[in-house]
UniProtKB/TrEMBL annotation:
The active site is at C441 (nucleophile). The keyword S-adenosyl-L-methionine applies. Pfam families: tRNA_U5-meth_tr (PF05958). This is S-adenosyl-l-methionine-dependent methyltransferase. Keywords: Methyltransferase, S-adenosyl-L-methionine, Transferase. SUPFAM superfamilies: Nucleic acid-binding proteins, S-adenosyl-L-methionine-dependent methyltransferases. It comes from the Bacteria. Belongs to the class I-like SAM-binding methyltransferase superfamily. RNA M5U methyltransferase family. GO terms for biological process: rRNA base methylation. One of its GO terms (molecular function) is rRNA (uridine-C5-)-methyltransferase activity. The keyword Methyltransferase applies. InterPro entries: MeTrfase_TrmA_CS, NA-bd_OB-fold, SAM-dependent_MTases_sf, TRAM_dom, U5_MeTrfase_fam.
Length: 484
């Protein structure tokens, strides 16, 4: 259950030793990627081993899973001294030797967020450097670049629930998109961590209930549709019934077969998504998106991100915190006329509220189908100029100019995992917008991109981080930058 549906195919790691090799490890700090830095207990100055399924401060017996000249990896298989933050994992399939996508499910949720805060601060320090740490530290409540990672609202409510069974499952049942593969034996499965091997999965606890109820992992109904190597996507839209999409590995490029929850073939290709934008004064927003196209996967993510990003773009005082109790909706009379350039705009999640409040947005997105979806959703808005194409310095320079007006006032970037990169950021800075809003799903890319913005004359004015992918090592950050 990776955060973004179109994740890269698993890399092929160096093979693990043929005979299992065990080590006893003293586990240190978390590192980016879902593991901790550990060293052999009998050789504290010895080689660093990146261990999964462990917690800082623990002593574990681990099996080596990968060895190459640079990196050794291991999975903890026995806990000799347990951390107080260790809990019973809620997803056995993602345990040692299992599938990727649930690598923190042995960690109590508050400690998962501490882990992520630590990783973010570490990335800012190691990759961004002292200049980035100083700039982030200058913001309130972020000493040493330690930005708190906030729970999503529903997960926070579940964590505070008086019922221990609800508390135990906090952060689970939140994914509206799930990507699976079919095993050689014809069952629903997922890739083993860093491997091309598909392992069967027996439950999908991170998925929303509507996807769990499909019974993809256990009902015979689905088996007759599955062929080894097929890719399965389960989608539970906020406006409508779930769908199951099957992609035949032998027919690349062919449209997937789409099935209803009852396993019947359907011609539906798109789903309806609704976003609550009442905090912005916009009521409920409605989108039409391809079922297998990119859409934010945590059930609350579209609403929370729209609220935070749109306020980040248009609030007078820079904020990455979204609508707070007592905040007025945005005043459309003031925001109208703000020129917004939006890069990596997907199916128009932010474009719709931004154009509703400003009247003019230029957007750029590489996926033609997503832009087609955005055009459908935004057909009533003349002020939205939605372009298909790669985000390049030339495209930024061209789209950043507004007819009879000048350059963009605000640029929004929501790039894929690798970040926007130096050349694109320099092209954004050359437009001289007064504000930039950067949404990042990878802390290493965020640190790199923040460094580039600093050198181009922009400083962070607000930052927030959200635990949009509980039980995995992933999280999302929103940074607001201002000129000077
Ligand atoms: C993290 S998603 C964000 C989409 C949208 N903001 C949302 O929240 O739904 C990143 C988007 O960037 C697009 N993308 C990735 N690389 C790109 C590139 N080089 N040029 C243009 N678009 C790209 C992807 O197709 C994807 O829609």
């Amino acid at each position: 259950m990776s955060p973004h549906r179109r994740s890269a195919p698993p890399r092929r790691p160096a093979p693990a030793p043929a005979t299992p090799e065990y080590v006893t490890l003293a586990v240190g700090a978390p590192a980016h990627g879902g593991h901790c830095v550990a060293r052999p207990v009998d050789d504290p100055s010895g080689r660093v081993i990146f261990v999964r399924h462990a917690l800082p401060g623990e002593t574990v017996r681990a099996v080596i899973t990968e060895k190459n000249s640079k990196i050794w990896r291991a999975d903890a298989v026995e806990v000799l001294t347990a951390s107080p933050d260790r809990v019973r994992p809620l997803w056995q399939d993602a345990g040692p030797g299992g599938v990727g996508g649930g690598e923190l499910s042995h960690v109590a949720l508050p400690a998962q967020r501490t882990w992520k805060r630590w990783v973010l601060a570490d990335c800012l320090r190691r990759i961004g450097g002292a200049e980035v740490v100083d700039a982030v530290t200058a913001l309130p409540g972020t000493a040493g670049g330690a930005v708190s990672v906030e729970p999503m609202p529903g997960d926070a409510a579940a964590e505070a629930d008086p019922n221990p069974r609800v508390r135990e499952r906090a952060g689970a049942g939140t994914r509206t998109r799930v990507s699976l593969a079919v095993t050689d034996a014809g069952a629903a499965g997922m890739h083993a961590f860093r491997s091309g091997t598909v392992l069967p999965v027996h439950s999908l606890p991170l998925a929303v209930q509507a996807i769990q109820d499909l019974g993809l992992t256990e009902r015979a109904l689905w088996r007759k549709h599955f062929r080894p190597g097929m890719r399965i996507t389960a989608v539970a839209p906020s406006d409508g019934d779930p769908l199951v999409l099957l992609e035949d590995p032998d027919a690349p490029g062919q449209a997937p077969t789409v099935l209803t929850a009852a396993g019947h073939s359907t011609g539906r290709r798109r789903v309806g998504e609704a976003v609550d934008a009442t905090g912005l004064g916009l009521g409920r927003l409605h989108y039409s998106v391809h079922a297998d196209g990119f859409w934010q996967a945590h059930r609350e993510a579209p609403t929370v991100l729209v609220d935070r990003v749109v306020r980040a773009v248009l609030a007078e005082t820079p904020t990455a915190a979204g609508t707070r109790p007592g905040d007025e909706p945005l005043d459309a009379a003031r925001t109208a006329g703000t020129r917004v350039l939006e890069l990596y705009s997907g199916a128009g999640l932010f474009t719709l509220p931004l154009v509703a409040l400003t009247g003019q947005v230029h957007s750029l997105e590489g996926d033609a189908r997503a832009v087609g979806d955005a055009r459908r959703t935004l057909h009533d808005y003349d002020g939205a100029q939605l372009s298909v194409g790669r985000v390049t310095p030339a495209a930024v320079a061209q789209l950043g100019r507004f007819e009879n007006a000048g350059g963009a006032d605000v640029v929004v970037l929501d790039p894929p995992r690798r970040g926007a990169g130096r050349e694109v950021i320099q092209a954004v800075a050359a437009l001289n917008p007064s504000r930039v809003v950067l949404v990042a799903c990878d802390p290493a890319a965020l640190a790199r991109d923040l460094g580039t913005f600093l050198r181009a004359g922009y400083r962070p004015a607000a930052i927030s981080a959200l635990d949009m992918f509980p039980h995995t090592h992933h999280f999302e950050t929103i940074a607001v930058l201002e000129r000077g």
